[in-house]
């Protein structure tokens, strides 16, 4: 889990950093904030958007573009393990003062595992090979948990989290399905049914997942200001201004 991090003031004069677009610079600082004690973090566009830009309307494609720009500048290293995307900041520990470091729960760029304080590299640790199904199973479970947290942050009704997480784990959505879910949730938030009576009719998250709510279709009217009965909401008309001198 990420903790308080330190930003070296030289970052503002670094040629690698100042060559980035402004939003990409902000994203890089966000990566530093969210990296664990070994400088690793989840690197998919979905994870970066939810963690660094939770209230912004950036698209996943925009976030991916900025992420790839940072990778191209060699400020972070991108890698994949079992289909999941990760990032690693090579100089992270050089600039962070930590009285106690915690082993990363994420796989290393060179394989599964960590090397904090034990002097063991991934190539030397026999527990870190792909022949260990238990390790791989734990890693898969952790990825599902991370994806669920992304879903939970986006879903507007925070009820019965444990039940929702169990249903989510059964579905085991990959990044593509999770992106589809998040898109459907955003449409649902704009619909009349979900907005009615302060969100009273928003399904419980477990119910929505069981019903494959991401496959629901909303018409343009349903997400463009039309009430649940189909009656258009009245548009306020501007008052005509009268000059008192003409009265």
Explain how this protein is built:
The structure is a single chain. The chain is mainly alpha-helical. It has two domains: 1-115, Winged helix-like DNA-binding domain superfamily/Winged helix DNA-binding domain (Arc Repressor Mutant, subunit A), CATH 1.10.10.10; 126-232, no CATH class. It is 41% helix and 5% strand. It contains ten helices and three strands, in the order ααβααββαααααα. Strands 1-3-2 form a three-stranded antiparallel sheet, with no helix packed on it. The longest helix is centred in the middle third of the chain and has 22 residues, at 133-154. It is elongated. It starts with 14 loop residues before the first helix and ends in a 37-residue tail after the last helix. The relative contact order is 0.09. Mean pLDDT is 77; it is low at 112-142 and 226-247.
